[in-house]
Amino acid sequence: YRSGPGTNGFRVALNGASVTTTHVAEDIGYVVMETEKVDTADGITYETDTTGTSVRGYDDARYSETFDQTYTTAPLVLVSQLGMRGTEGSWAMIDSITTTTLTMYEDEDQTTDTERSHQQEYYAYAAFAAAGSFTLTDQTFLQDPVTVNLQNTYTNPVVITTPYFTNDMNSPASTRVYDVTSNAFTLELDFTTDSF
């Protein structure tokens, strides 16, 4: 078991799942927030929490968390797997979001086997109300790369994406961010059959 972050720091690694065990060095962006928090920042209400070791794989039952507050519309949510249990890599997925509940699961590739069952993993999430002084982006992307133009210009921006697939639940995939500039980035779906 590779543990998640602690109060003094964390370790980050690239997850090749069952596809690869090596990868060239990459830049990795991250956001650190205090957990179990309900607050407002720049006029946007948000909350953060962790699940405990509870989230299972695509072939298993979904795991739901009830938000600490009720939103007027479904919030924008980021999820992240904290640590890794077992030998098969996996990544965090959102199944559904309502004004009161977030439902999640783990997904994994089907390169060496066809099952997508996974042992329980530990998640963290942040939910943001969709109103405030800055815009959170919630867009639909296809397989082809899409350039996202940002409303503002940033010095060394960090871009975080979370898969929320509602159309094709049969093909495991994650999102890949690249070509990040001060005012844009490119995003595409990354399938396990893609070359690394």
Question: Would you mind describing this structure in some detail?
Answer:
With 196 residues, the protein is an all-beta fold. It has strands at 37-41, 44-55, 63-66, 76-81, 91-97, 101-107, 121-128, 146-149, 173-178, 184-191. The strands form 3 sheets. It has a 4-stranded antiparallel sheet, with no helix packed on it. It has a 3-stranded antiparallel sheet with strand order 3-6-5, with no helix packed on it. It has a 3-stranded antiparallel sheet with strand order 8-10-9, with no helix packed on it. The two termini are 25 Å apart.
- In spatial order, strands of the major sheet run 1-2-7-4
Structural class by helix and strand composition: mainly beta
Mean pLDDT: 74
Instruction: List the secondary-structure elements in sequence, H or E.
Output: EEEEEEEEEE
State the distance separating the first and last CA atoms: 25 Å
Q: Please work out how many helical segments DSSP would assign.
A: 0
> Total number of β-strand segments?
10
Q: Helix share of residues?
A: under 10%
User: What form results from the Cα inertia axes?
Assistant: globular
Strand content: 25-35%
Radius of gyration: 17 Å
Main β sheet profile: 4 strands, antiparallel
Low-confidence runs (pLDDT<50, min 5 residues)? Answer: 131-138
